[in-house]
Specification:
433 residues; alpha+beta; Aminopeptidase; Alpha-Beta Plaits; 2 domains; 6-stranded mixed beta sheet; 4-stranded antiparallel beta sheet; 11 helices; disordered N terminus
């Protein structure tokens, strides 16, 4: 069927697909349990406990370790850390065949989720993981606990169908994907390598061809406090902060005009987005504010280094210090310092995924370019490993009433299961009782 080691016959493929169906209720229940355990930044431990237990139950070789910011800081892909990493852990489970004859694989996913926002704005609790009209709701349901569960249950299906993969597989449950990318970077620095990587992020049943890099930084604007009755003699840092934002918007507009020079981004209307994600300032309603800070997420094109982009952003803000009303706006890196990447077409891994997807979905695999960050950059940029970011249909990720399509989860799990079999190779084993 697919021309890879342990190539699948139609009969073998059907056995694997049927095994996904047989365990699908259990897969959904496990995914719901993951969603019911909030895993916001630095508080991922209880959800990682579930992943650790799930990997142990499958007989995987377990590795759990705390992220080390000093070790990470020595790498160019490091995102500066503003929190303690005490108790912040990655979990990796490794399957090793009795004789490693097939190609190796990393199945990666992140356990961390973004904040849920005001719960009263949700139509139900962000953590109840309800399934309604074919959708599973909850913070992290789509981004990306459904994908984490799919990795494990795809592997289960291969074995339940009566096969053993003949290639090594690393199941990675990482932290920090939503803020620095340091979780996958830590796994890379720990020595985990493979011939391909699959990351089932919520990608609309498609493959990501290219995505942006991301920088996080905080800008502090200084003012001169006075009483409001003489506010004209002071300098309002909050007002000045909006001037600094406007200057950054000019850089954003300039970078968007350059999209025609960047392959795969030419047809996106606005690929470069600067988000002002937080602002705070001042000390007293009746004092002209002496300070203001705002947080920025800025996107950059693949091929632009983080250092190049950071230099231009610094120069933009430094330029505000000249003129009739000088503004002191100082940026500090606070998280992502990550470059974007392109998945070059034509790899064996992509060809195999095209075949597994078409078998399951009955339609060719589509690809697209996303203005979002993805951990695939770690494997592609620093190890040259093809990173297949491919996952289920989701809605409102990072928003209210986040949800993921149940049927899409089923199909993506089947496609990943067939990919495992085709990529790693399989041999007959005694059926699981």
């Amino acid at each position: 069927m697919m021309g890879a080691p342990g190539a699948l016959t139609d009969e073998r493929a059907r056995r694997i697909e049927d095994a996904v169906d047989a365990a699908f209720d259990a897969q959904l229940a496990f995914t719901q349990e993951l969603v019911k355990h909030p895993s916001r930044r630095t508080r991922e431990g209880i959800a990682q406990d579930l992943m650790h237990e799930a990997m142990a139950a499958r007989g995987l070789e377990l590795d759990r370790w705390e992220l080390d910011p000093e070790e990470l800081a020595a790498h160019e892909g490091f995102g500066p850390v503003t929190v303690s990493y005490e108790g912040v852990t990655n979990v990796v489970g490794t399957y090793r065949p009795s004789a490693e004859r097939g190609r190796s694989l990393i199945l990666n996913g992140h356990i961390d989720v973004v904040p849920e926002g005001p719960e009263e704005a949700w139509s139900r609790s962000p953590w109840d993981a309800s399934i309604i009209d074919g959708w599973m709701y909850g913070r992290g349901a789509g981004d990306m606990k459904a994908g984490l569960a799919a990795n494990l249950f795809a592997f289960d299906a291969v074995r339940a169908a009566g096969f053993e993969p003949t290639g090594r597989i690393h199941f990675q449950s990482v932290v920090e994907e939503e803020c620095t990318g340091n979780g996958s970077l830590a796994a890379f620095l720990r020595g985990y390598r493979a011939d391909a990587v699959v990351i089932p992020e919520p990608e609309e049943d498609m493959l990501v061809r290219a995505n942006v890099g991301v920088l996080w930084f905080k800008v502090r604007v200084s003012g001169n406090p006075t009483h409001p009755r003489v506010m004209g003699s002071g300098f309002n840092a909050i007002d000045a902060a909006y001037t600094a934002m406007a200057a950054l918007r000019e850089v954003e507009a300039k970078w968007n005009l350059e999209r025609f020079n960047h392959r795969y981004f030419e047809d996106l209307e606005h690929p470069i987005n600067f988000n002002f994600g937080g602002i705070v300032g001042g000390d007293w309603p009746s004092s002209v504010p002496a300070w203001c800070e705002f947080d920025v997420r800025a996107a950059i094109y693949p091929g632009t280094t983080a250092e190049e982009a950071w230099t231009e952003l610094q120069e933009c803000l430094a330029g505000l210090a000249t003129g009739d009303a000088p503004i002191d706006a100082v940026p500090t890196r606070t998280g992502f310092f990550a470059e974007g990447y392109v998945l070059e077409p034509g790899s064996d891994a992509e060809s195999l995924l095209e075949a597994t997807h078409e078998r399951v979905f009955g339609a060719p695999l589509g690809s697209f370019t996303t203005p979002g960050y993805l951990d695939g950059r770690v494997f592609t940029l620093y190890a040259g490993i093809p990173s297949l970011v491919y996952g289920p249909v989701s809605e409102a990720i990072h928003g209210f009433d986040e949800r993921v399509s149940v049927e899409s989860i089923r199909r993506v799990t089947k496609s990943i299961a067939l990919f495992i079999a085709g990529w790693c190779g399989i041999e007959e084993r005694s059926p699981i009782s």
